[in-house]
Amino acid sequence: MLHSLTVPAWRNALTALSGQLAKALTWGESNGVGELQLLAARLAPDMFPLATQIRFSCGQALQAATRLGASGAPDFADDASDFAGMQAQIAQTLAWLDALDPAAFGDDADRPVEFSLPNGMVFDLRALDYVRDWALPQFYFHIVAAYAILRHMGVPLGKADYASYMMQHLRPGTAPAA
């Protein structure tokens, strides 16, 4: 259950994020906005830039999966220095997620999960509460921040880019005419 609540969601969002980055790179080339401008862009002075949001998006999925029982997660100690590097972080995360054995997550949603923050705070939760209240919200925070940075920079993204994975569920004949 924990695997099915998390890994598909992480996979969908990271795949969509990869598509958003590809669109941003193409748009930037056509509009005189360089990779470095986009990499360093942020929503507010005290927020992390795009490259960090990408690294944190991947890291949130990797850390949560590890806390839930997976092992061998890649480590991205540094932000990527270009779009190819950000795409590589996403691809490596997706490959690792795809290789996970769902059994590693176990089936005990009530088992304890503990984690600490760098500021010394320690949290004790049931596994299901951890997924619902921390793992998924933290992951989506960074996914949305990356999307918002790209939008802020002028990249023409829309909800279809954010939730592109939903197209696999579209009923035939119901898409609006272009």
Walk me through this protein's architecture.
The protein is 57% helix and 6% strand. The protein has a two-stranded antiparallel sheet. It is mainly α and 178 residues long. It has helices spanning 2-31, 35-40, 50-67, 83-99, 127-152, 159-162; strands at residues 112-116, 122-126. It has a single domain (2-168), classed as dinb family like domain (Four Helix Bundle (Hemerythrin (Met), subunit A)). Helix 1 packs antiparallel against helix 4.
Topology of helices and strands:
Elements: H1 2-31, H2 35-40, H3 50-67, H4 83-99, E1 112-116, E2 122-126, H5 127-152, H6 159-162
Antiparallel strand pairs: 1-2
Helix pairs in contact: 1-3, 1-4, 1-5, 3-4, 3-5
